[in-house]
Amino acid sequence: MNTIKQALGILWVILAVAAAYFCVFEFGLPKLLSDQQDDLVFGIIILFILTPLIVLGLGTFGYFAVIGEYNNKRK
Amino acid sequence: MSKTSTKGIWKVISASSMGTMIEWYDFYIFGSLAVVISTKFFPSDNPTAAFLSTLATFAAGFVVRPFGALFFGRLGDIIGRKYTFMATLLLMGGSTFLIGCIPSYETIGFMAPLLVLILRLLQGLALGGEYGGAATYVAEHAPVGQKGYWTSWIQTTATVGLFISLMVILATKNVLSAEAFDSWGWRVPFWVSIVMVGVSYLIRKNMDESPVFAKAKKEGTTSTNPLKESFGNRYNLKFVLLALFGATMGQGVVWYTGQFYAMSFMKTVMNIDSSQVDSLLGIALLLGTPFFIVFGWLSDKVGRKYIMMSGMLLAILFYRPIYKMMYNTTDVSYKTEIVEQTSQNVERTQNNDIITTLSKTYTDGTSYIEKKTDFADKKKSQSSITININSADEWTLIFLVFIQVLFVTMVYGPIAAFLVEMFPTKIRYTSMSLPYHVGNGIFGGLLPAISTYFVTHSKAAGKSDFYLDGLWYPIIIASICFVIGMVYIDNKNKINHL
Which ipTM did the prediction report? Predict the structure, then answer.
């Protein structure tokens, strides 16, 4: 189980990077550059709240998983 | 751990739950009355006011709640749970009451939307601090092995708060004429809050501090810097991240889908009459609420993890079939029209706008009204569809929403106990509040906006099942959370600090 936890850690890091791409280039920037007021607020929230949260949060979680922080310790 | 008697714990539950329920009520009436509020404070022809309106809707729900969690969580871990969640109660109640007192945009101009925005932000801050305090307070009073059951009462408050907000608004609308409600009656639900807050304050004032926190304070083992200890310490940070990505993130999207996306889907995608949606949602919530207690209790017997993960898995598997069935109930292409009863009425207003109303009736009792306004300046036209469903369809939808509320009760019922058990007393309020409000406020709160974006995008692309594409957001988020939860969370919580 510990090996699976550590291996999946790599997946979470990759997912964080992929989420960064989608949040910035697919959702955030197009919304931010649109003329609509609603889109502007939505873009700000995606870029400055959701993106850092997913990238830093999920990335750190993945890193912790890779280095074995979540492994079950032998008794 | 706790020596609180059953009678004592009921006192704790009622004091805590009532306050938390009122906070949810306060938070939801703003959302439920958003249309009226926008006409009074945020005129659409003023771009700045419209911008503030969007900010008030978004910011209070998402951005401010986690800040409230940090601010009040820190206070709760330093000065105590009781005084902190009394402060959040007064802040929420005061803000809500004052929103009901603000003169309209016509009277005081730009100050009106600005004041509403500030008060809405204060509401978000208060809500961010309240939940963690109430859940911690109850869990620290509850007997060992029954924390899931007792904290599940706190879990009912969000749904009960939504239910009561719908009922108070419905009752006010019934008592007053449409003109009176539009003129001043919409303020009544805001004023009602101050009475409920007053009663709840008096009850909470006489409560004792949590025994676990009082003991820690006496022994001098409370934290002097809960923020640093929660998020600057790798050991605690890894559990904060696990709580967020392995539990609250998925729970947040399941919660928002079952209660809010379902409502907006029926109103805006299925075009069902707004009052019909409110009442059928109210019935589904009422039927589903006892299951918070059932699953909270069950989590004490079989563990929190498998109940929460089962709820997430069921939601992932059944959301698309459920929403397809919901959509089909009002899809008039499957119904037989009574052609003799079809009518079309054209009228011209004083502004020379032309309003065309098309009414259709179907053999199963469904009625369909399409209203199209062609404005005199020819620059734009506006159309709306309202469908009144028959009783059988109403009960089908109640059942389908009820199933979604059941998923909500599975993921949400045990989560308070799960979170409080994860962290030690001295940083519990801070550490559990943040993942809860990020999961619910940000991942859950963004759901309506992101899902609507997917639906609009698919509709523009001409997809026949465009209405199902909004579900990809909760399905993807819940799936990631499900895998993380299943792999990394231990069912027998070995780090149980209570």
Answer: 0.92
